[in-house]
Amino acid sequence: MTRLLPLVGLLAAAPALLSAQELVTTPADVLGQPAPMTSQVALTFGAAVTTRFNTSDGFDHQDNELELAAEAAYEGLHFGLSLTSLYDDPTDEFEYEFALGYGDSFANGVEWDLTYAVIGLNDSAGTDEELTAAIVSAVGPATDLGLAIILDPESGKSDQEVAFEHALDNRWSLVGLVGNSDRDDNLYAEVGVNYAINDDLVLEVLYEDTNDGDGLLGFTLGYEFGS
Predict the structure, then answer these.
(1) CA nearest neighbour of 166 among 134, 136, 199, 138
(2) Dist. CA 152–CA 60, nearest whole Å
(3) What is the CB neighbour count within 10 angstroms for residue 39?
(4) CA angle (48 as vertex; 47, 51 as ends), nearest 5
(5) 100-145 pLDDT per residue, tens
(6) 3-state DSSP call for residue 123?
(7) What CA–CA distance (Å, rounded) separates 115 from 59?
């Protein structure tokens, strides 16, 4: 499963999100906020620890993951870097992602973001590219809805995603996502709950599944801080 909407990722419930595929992870900040429109450079840093279990195979442990991320934003322009550890990989220790994008709001309050990302591995040669276009809009006093298209410029294939966040109160929120991947030739979905322990610390429980793979239940603890 390709996971690309930051809202359904770790820092979805935090007051200030990193642009992120999982933290900065695909840096179109879809159901979060576009990069801050500020005359000063805003710096944000984050770390996340995740463990996942295979719900289709006796709830066996699937993997552990550590992610570190940083983002700089200035007047809608944002640049992000994330490093994500790989579990029991015989060749590589981590995946890296560089992302450059721009986000703003329309007059009616609908937010948009366009981000280009380069993704690679620390030892293996070659990189992948992604171009993500996303919009997000409030569809109620406590609910945001986001749409994203993630394009592989080399193959011309894309993923299409719809995601939502519904705030239950000032700490709890429900998140969900459904997507179609032309790149992987499958359908995928996620549903979960986020709990903001405080302004910087977030706990997420997320179930992920595809129509051609096993279901995964993940538990993530993330910390984010910055100016």
Answers:
(1) 138
(2) 33
(3) 6
(4) 160
(5) 999 999 988 899 999 999 999 999 999 999 999 999 999 999 999 9
(6) coil
(7) 36
